[in-house]
């Protein structure tokens, strides 16, 4: 596991923007001891 963080921090921002635009649901679950799981739920198509 890396001890330093790298990146721009745009990942979750972009996921949120795309989810909002596409009517998706984003859920978060801690993944102990390290990290997290993010779940995107798509709406069912209307019939």
From TrEMBL:
Domain of life: Bacteria
Keyword match ATP-binding: yes
Keyword Cell membrane belongs to the record: no
Histidine kinase/HSP90-like ATPase domain residues: 3-45
InterPro entries xref list: HATPase_C_sf, HATPase_dom
Entry keyword set: ATP-binding, Nucleotide-binding
Any one Pfam family match given in the protein's UniProt record, by short name: HATPase_c
Molecular functions (GO terms): ATP binding
Listed name of the protein: ATP-binding protein
Originating organism: Actinoplanes aureus
Upper taxonomic lineage: Bacteria, Bacillati, Actinomycetota, Actinomycetes, Micromonosporales
């Amino acid at each position: 596991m890396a001890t330093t963080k790298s990146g721009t921090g745009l990942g979750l921002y972009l996921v949120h923007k795309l989810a909002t635009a596409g009517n998706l649901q984003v859920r978060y679950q801690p993944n102990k001891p390290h990290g997290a799981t993010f779940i995107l739920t798509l709406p069912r198509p209307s019939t």
